[in-house]
Each structure stands twice: as structure tokens, then as C-alpha cells.
Amino acid sequence: MDSLESRMASVMEEMTLAGDWTDRYRLLVEWGERDDPLSEDERRPEFQIPGCSSPLWLRVRWRGHAVEVKGASPGLFPRALVALLVRLFDGLDEVCGACPAVLDSLDLRRHLSLTRGLVLERMLERIRNCARTAP
Questions:
Q1: Can you tell me the distance from the alpha carbon of 48 to that of 59, in angstroms, rounded to the nearest whole number?
Q2: Helix, strand, coil share of the chain (percent; to 5)
Q3: Which domain holds residue 119?
Q4: Count of domains forming the chain
Q5: Taking all residues of the chain, what is their mean pLDDT, rounded to a whole number?
Q6: What secondary structure does DSSP assign to 67-133, as a single string?
Q7: What pLDDT is recorded for position 35?
Q8: Quick check: 98 pLDDT over 60?
Q9: For the chain, does the N or the C end have fewer beta carbons within 10 angstroms?
Q10: pTM here?
Q11: pLDDT band at 86 (very low <50, low <70, confident <90, very high)
């Protein structure tokens, strides 16, 4: 069974292979371009993440016994952050309290602007809130 730890290791490996942070940024953007976004009718106010310069939606819910993470944004980097969170959390049957470690393990805090860091933290908070309602 997939775990957050194994997914983190996989993401960290891909990012390390990508090279410096310019290349890692490009990798994140590529993930965002390949991601299947929320449809237009799913982009509702209750899924919006405040504080982002681009509109940003993140829907996190339980489907059966697994968490489903899906989002959308017209902005390249917000969409990239959604893709990162989809890679890490979508389909997991246990999310636990490990969400804050994502920022530190990938060294994202140091490489994101204050605004982007806050937006990512709000997205992680949405995932944590969903985890608290696990079936």
C-alpha cells in the first residue's frame, strides 16, 4: 500500500534528479500542466483558497476509504503546487498529521515567496481538516 512517506521519497528523488531549484520549479510546473484539473462547474467558492494572486481551488474529500485531492488554477505555479499535493496525498487511506513536514522535507519554505508559502500552508490545512474527518 502506498504511504505518504513513500510518495515523499519518490517526489524528493525526482526533484533531486531535476537539479537546482530552477529545474525543480520547471518540474513542478510540468506536473501542473499534466494534472487533471477540477472541471469548471466544480470550481465553487467553498473550494477556493484565499490569498493567491490567481484564482485557486482545492477540493479535498473522502471517497470510500481514500482521500481525493483535486484542484485547479489558471496560474502556472498555483497549479504546480496543486499537482504536488495531488502526487503526495491523492488516494491515500491515511493522511495523518504529517502534512506540515512537506514544506520542510522538500525545502519549499526557503524557495517560495511568503505569499506562495502561505497559500501552500492553507492548502495543507485543508488536507489536514479532511484527515480529521476520516471515515
A1: 8
A2: 55, 10, 30
A3: 4-132
A4: 1
A5: 87
A6: EEEEEE-SSHHHHHHHHHHHHHHTT-S--TT-TTHHHHHTTHHHHS-HHHHHHHHHHHHHHHHHHHT
A7: 82
A8: no
A9: N
A10: 0.90
A11: very high
Q: What is the greatest pairwise CA distance in the chain?
A: 40
Dihedral of the alpha carbons of 126, 8, 65, 130, in degrees to the nearest 10: -10
Q: Which three cell numbers stand for residue 122?
A: 492553507
Give the amino acid at 102. V
The grid coordinates listed for 86 are: 495531488
Strands 66-72 and 57-63: antiparallel
CA-CA distance, 122 to 75, in Å (whole number)? 17
Please name the amino acid found at residue 133. T
Question: First and final CA of the chain: distance in angstroms?
Answer: 18
